[in-house]
Every structure is written in C-alpha cells, then in structure tokens.
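CO-FOLDING WORKSHEET

Operator: S.A.
Ligand of interest: adenosine-5'-triphosphate
Run index: 251
Mode: holo prediction, single chain
Checklist:
[x] sequence pasted
[x] SMILES validated
[ ] output reviewed
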Amino acid sequence: MRLSKVTFRYRRREPLIIRSADARLSPGDVIELTGVNGAGKSTLLRLLAGLARPTTGTISGRPPVVGFAPDRFPVGQPFTVTAYLRHMSRVRGGARWEPWAERLTMGHLLTVPLGELSKGSAHKVGLAQALMADPGLLILDEPFAGLDADTREVLPSIAAEVAAGGGIVIASDHQGGLRALPAVRHWSVVDGHLKEGTAVEPTAEVADRAPAVAAVPQVTVAVTLPVGELQPFLARMRGEGYQAREIEETG
Ligand SMILES: Nc1ncnc2c1ncn2[C@@H]1O[C@H](COP(=O)(O)OP(=O)(O)OP(=O)(O)O)[C@@H](O)[C@H]1O
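OUTPUT RECEIVED:
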C-alpha cells in the first residue's frame, strides 16, 4: 500500500490538515501513530481506511478488507450488541463475531443496547466489528483508551496475529501499548507532515511487563507444533513480551 503526496483539508479555503504524507506499507507491518491533539491522526487514519479522499495525491494498493475501529464508536443506533454484531457479520459475508466477543470479554454486554454502553464497552464493540472480517488492513484509533486491563493485555497479541497473517496494523496510540511488539514502525504527524521515526524504546511500564528483558534468570523451552501454526504462535509469544524464534522443521 502506498501514499503519494497526500494532502487533505476538510473544506475549501480551510487550511490543510495533512500537508504532505508519503509512505509505503507492507504486509506484516505494525505502525504506531503519534502526534499532539489535533495534529491530524484520526484524519490520516480515515484517509488510510478510505473513509475520506485525499484533497490531492493518491493512496493505492489498499487491501480489499479493511477493519476500522474509530476512537468514538457510534452508539446512537437502536440495536443490542448482539443484534449489531450479527448485522455486521451479515454485511461482512457471514464473518464470525463470536470468538471476538469471547476474546474481548464481552459476554456480559451482548444483551445491552448500544446506547447504554460505557465508553470502554462501546470501544470493544468497535474492535470486534473491525476484527471479525479478518482484515488485511486493521486501523485502530486510540485502541487502548478506556479499555479494561484484560483487554489491554490481549490487544498487542491480536495486532501481532493480524500482522503475522500478512495484515497491516496501524494504531494511533499515546500510551505505547504496541511498543513491546518486534519491529513496530513509528509514525508521527507533525505540522501536517507525516514523519517516520526509528523504533521506539519500550516505555518503562511496557518493559516491566516484558519477561524477556527482566534481570532474572532465563530459561529456554522447546515447543513442537504444526508448521502452519508457527507464525501465529511466534506472534502471540512476542506479543506477550517473550523472545521466540523457529529452531528447526522436522518430518
Ligand atoms: N469533520 C471535521 N470537519 C472539520 N474539521 C475537522 C473535522 N474533524 C477534525 N477536524 C479538524 O482537523 C484537525 C485534526 O483533527 P484530528 O481529529 O484528525 O486530530 P487528532 O490528531 O486525531 O486529535 P486527537 O489526538 O485530539 O484525537 C483538528 O484541527 C480538527 O479540529
């Protein structure tokens, strides 16, 4: 996927919000997007998702299936959570939402009308609808905001799995929630310009949670599993902060 000389303004004669964005995204990329409030992160994510069109410039090579979890999930719809997810499943050609509801610990929310959800719970519904279609491009706008601890912990593994399956993941995030993942790219929007920085060091909080970097004795274990499960397994382990690599293929 490629962004070439992308600019964007909301209305004619208003200033450009995105003044220049050039970038390439490859399958398996995980990108953390930062910038001060109002810098244009959500705007850039909506452009990437195809929900807004560049004023000038082009975005090409977008994967056919896009999952977009907005920062504010629109709750003003007359559905319960289950009815909404079933509806989205039909729109997505019968995608399975139930495993995501379980993984995001949404069991207690299923009969609740969307309009009565708390902010964090509504956010989970937004994540479930973004994930259910097995997206080739997963876009998460402030995904950690308002989430409970269990879901915060599981989200990096989910992002790593999508990337290991060849998807692109991009998340605006001030909290460094994805920084424990290997090879996270870091983008920022500064004065309307998209800049790419080098990999960011894990924050102290993330480093504390990563067992592999703790100054304690380490142990290496062997795990044998079907070849086809290797990449998701490695991604899950790395997502949880462990060092994990393939040693040999047998049989
Ligand atoms: N629908 C809109 N119409 C006009 N201007 C808008 C619209 N949405 C956002 N803007 C403006 O575009 C600029 C960038 O907003 P955007 O929401 O993309 O920033 P952000 O970096 O995501 O901010 P935050 O960190 O606060 O979420 C802001 O000046 C905002 O006021």
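REVIEW:
Residues 10, 17, 35, 37-43 surround adenosine-5'-triphosphate (CB under 6 Å).
The longest strand covers residues 2-8.
[x] output reviewed
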